[in-house]
Amino acid sequence: MKIIKIDKKEWEQGIDKARSKYQLFGHKEDQGAYHMRNLEKDELPDMDCLDTILSPKSILFPQTEKMMSATLDESQDDHHILKEIKADKAPRAVLGIKPYDAKAIELVKLNFDTEDYRDPYWCDAYEATTFVGLAVNTPGPFDFSTSAGSGPFAEDGLDILLVDTGDAYLGKILNSKGEEFARVCGFDKLADSDAQTTIDKMQQDAEAAIVSKIATDTLKSKTILDLYDAPFWDDIAFSCINCGTCTFVCPTCWCFDIQDETKRKETIRFRNWDSCMSPLFTLHGSGHNPRGEKVQRVRQRFMHKLKYFLDKYDQGTMCVGCGRCVKQCPVNIDIREVCNIMNSYEKQK
Predict the structure, then answer these.
(1) Which residues of the chain have pLDDT under 50?
(2) Is-above-0.70 flag for pTM?
């Protein structure tokens, strides 16, 4: 690993060089809110953005994605045969991604890239992407990443970690992908020998500024059925309106539905985001719905994030502490409170 120094006066020139090889994504403001989106020619990412409404997961996992197509024209030899729609696998770079969002992508990878199955759509996009993270010097009030397996300077899932020091960025090159991106940009100036000390001090200050925390130390030892049958779920679910906002803003939600749509003589198969908070999510063709009640869906969401995932993968909870669901929930359901309730629960004997 090496640390480079990027003078902000040279930042724009370097990013323009990167366009020769990479499709670039970064934070942009739209109607008072920030989004992570494709950067057009001459557009630069807003590196001062504190957070985005939605996470960057759509870069690898679009909200709507074309997967296959078929012609219904029987005059064609290949009619009614589904064929893969070739995706753009050209190199791309995500600029300024927050460390907790990069960590979330690594958690999602556990689902899409396994020993038994490799999702080609997600995995191909992942392998084509370079993640250039930006450390969070001033965490917001909803950030509880330090107690959720991440942190404002965490490096998991990143190829480069940038640290804003005012008039320059210190860039920690974490692997060969990061090395190649820096080379293409022309960022080759090595930082001073005390750069790591500067980063460590800034990291300590940023982590100390995060006062919101969750407790997860006893979740692993809890019996699933004890938590499942716990009496607190009705109270937690009482105010929920099943809007699904929490699932759409969450960087680790990966649920999807697949639909075929036909127009005239062409059929396209789409993959779309879905939500476990929807009553239709578990509706069977028979008409039976195993999670037909609101409380069952709320319980499923939190049990999956905080217990099922933990037990299956043993890599922490399925929450990175970004705080988006807390901030965006219209009825103030707070995953931090739910997690602490689950962590402290003891079944009455």
Answers:
(1) none
(2) yes
